[in-house]
Write a structure and sequence with these properties.
The protein is of the alpha/beta class and 206 residues long. The chain contains seven helices and ten strands.
């Protein structure tokens, strides 16, 4: 599908019917499927040959969607609001306590979920078409290179997915930074597109 010819309404219908999609984001290419269908989530893991012990993250089309899927720790609310204002849309994944809408399989039977709003017009429209929340992980077979452009997508992996969107090269090309804000002990779990220094300049020492 060329980006000029994308029919977001059709993509949304197919996603809601349980199909999987490979799509571009600002960081890397992702593979996703609707949050409301546990079978779809299982199929993401199967397509990737991924262990169910590795959680997916939820990409959202707007910050308003956060509290549909997660609880915000009140002690961290101000800092979370600052991070969202500073770094969303963009390469920052925020870990929060999950709500019951999140299937246990998606978060490895844990109590938290990672949430991010990508800075990418096609991605945001696709996520919006699926209802504003799209469980996603990198579009590759586990252990293989993370694709930063359409050309880097693995042919075998593409054959396992229903909808494939060519959005060229991902503008950031680096995985997101992951910060755990689910409790008072704030931790950076992975430093990626946004540095610890940038985060500490916004919310103070971690």
């Amino acid at each position: 599908m060329e980006k000029q010819k994308l029919n977001y309404e059709k993509i949304g219908t197919e996603l809601k019917n349980g199909k999987l999609i490979i799509y571009p984001t600002d960081t890397v290419y992702g593979v996703g499927g609707v949050i409301t269908n546990e079978e779809t989530i299982k199929n993401i893991y199967k397509a990737k040959d991924r262990s169910f012990s590795s959680p997916l993250i939820a990409l959202v089309s707007s910050a308003d969607k956060i509290e549909d899927i997660a609880f915000i720790n009140e002690k961290n609310r101000k800092k979370i609001e600052i991070l969202i204002k500073e770094f969303w849309p963009g390469g920052l994944t925020i870990i929060l306590e999950s709500k019951s809408i999140v299937p246990p399989i998606m978060i490895s039977n844990g109590k938290t979920v990672g949430v991010r709003m990508p800075d990418h017009e096609i991605a945001l429209k696709i996520i919006e078409s699926a209802g504003g929340i799209l469980p996603t992980t990198s579009a590759n077979i586990s252990g293989e290179k993370t694709p930063r452009s359409f050309e880097e997508l693995d042919e075998e992996f593409k054959n396992r997915i229903d909808i494939i969107v060519d959005g060229g090269v991902c503008p950031i090309g680096t995985a997101s930074t992951i910060i755990d804000m689910s409790n008072e002990n704030i931790k950076i779990l992975r430093e990626g597109a946004i540095s610890q220094k940038q985060i500490e300049m916004a919310i103070g020492k971690i």
